[in-house]
Structure formats: structure tokens, C-alpha cells
Write a structure and sequence with these properties.
Blueprint lengths: L17 H9 L10 H18 L36 H5 L14 H5 L6 H13 L6 H17 L17
Helix pairs in contact: 2-6, 5-6
């Protein structure tokens, strides 16, 4: 899944390990273990897609495509951004096992629906970076996140489902 994470061209070479991921995932009850098998795969794909977008080393003509290069950096490259725009979903919980990351358990409220926020991968992007990326029509950053998500869904053999973008969703904050 993380094909180039140990590539010498990546600064994170040797940093990310399977054991470290499993230990971190176990710290968040329910992460990747709730709902149907497809729900669990989508949750895992969503996590890897969002974090791959933030740590990508890919480019449009990269070997195996730009979405094969997630986890190339240890830290995101643009740390000036304010993340987790939703007051209801603080970052650590939204990344692991709470709320819309577990889309099989999230139901939009009337306020969410009136803001265009519906269940699907797009609302996860809205939670993480909605103030900069959502409610503004199509943009390359959201497309990049979707590209990673589709790649991981394909690897895991699951349909990505509907509502992948947040183009018409009002940000949470």
C-alpha cells in the first residue's frame, strides 16, 4: 500500500513501520473494526488517503503515478494550515475511530444536510481542512485526496462509495 515509504528518495525512508501503525490503531477503539468488511476497508482507505495527501512526495509523472508516493515525508510539507475545522471532531479522534471516519456510523444532522454535508469521504476532508478546501467548488487539493482514496480503495478491493468531494459542503467552522 505504501509502495515508496522506504524509498531512498523519500525523507521518511525507514520511518513508517507496520508494527507502529498497528500499535497506534489499537489505541483508538473501533478503528478499522466497526461495521461491515467494506466499511472497515473504506475507513482504512480514508485514513491512509488523508495522511498520504499530507505526506506525499508524488508528482504528476512519478513512477507508478503520484498517488503511489504517500508517506514520503515524516511531516506534512505545509504546516501553516489549521486542521480539524470541526469543533465536534478534534483531529486525533477524527483520524482514528470516531465520527465521520467511521462513516458507517455517522448520520448527518439537519444542520449538516442543510450545509451540504453528507456521509461519504468528502465530509472527512471537510472535518480535516474544510475551511481551506471545501465549499469553494473543485480544487486540486481535494482532487489529490480523492486520488489517494480511490487508490487505497482499489488496493483493498472496495468501492469508494458516493460523495467523495466537499466542493458544495459548507465548512464546519
Amino acid at each position: 500500500m505504501l509502495k515508496y515509504r522506504n524509498d531512498p528518495r523519500c525523507r521518511a525512508n525507514g520511518f513508517y513501520t507496520y508494527t507502529a501503525f498497528i500499535n497506534a490503531a489499537r489505541s483508538y477503539n473501533g478503528f478499522g473494526t466497526t461495521g461491515s468488511s467494506d466499511d472497515q476497508k473504506r475507513e482504512l482507505a480514508a485514513f491512509f488517503a488523508q495522511t498520504s495527501h499530507e505526506t506525499t512526495g508524488g508528482w504528476s509523472t512519478a513512477p507508478d503515478g503520484q498517488f503511489a508516493w504517500g508517506y514520503c515525508f515524516v511531516r506534512e510539507q505545509n504546516q501553516a494550515n489549521r486542521y480539524c475545522d470541526s469543533p465536534d471532531w478534534p483531529c486525533p479522534q477524527s483520524y482514528f475511530g470516531r465520527g465521520p471516519i467511521q462513516l458507517s456510523q455517522w448520520t448527518p444532522s439537519a444542520a449538516d444536510r442543510s450545509a451540504g454535508r453528507v456521509s461519504g469521504y468528502g465530509v472527512i476532508t471537510n472535518i480535516i481542512n474544510g475551511g481551506l478546501e471545501c465549499g469553494k467548488g473543485r480544487n486540486d487539493k481535494v482532487e489529490d485526496r480523492i486520488g489517494f482514496y480511490r487508490r487505497y480503495c482499489s488496493i483493498l478491493g472496495v468501492n469508494p462509495g458516493p460523495n467523495l468531494d466537499c466542493y458544495n459542503q459548507r465548512p464546519f467552522a
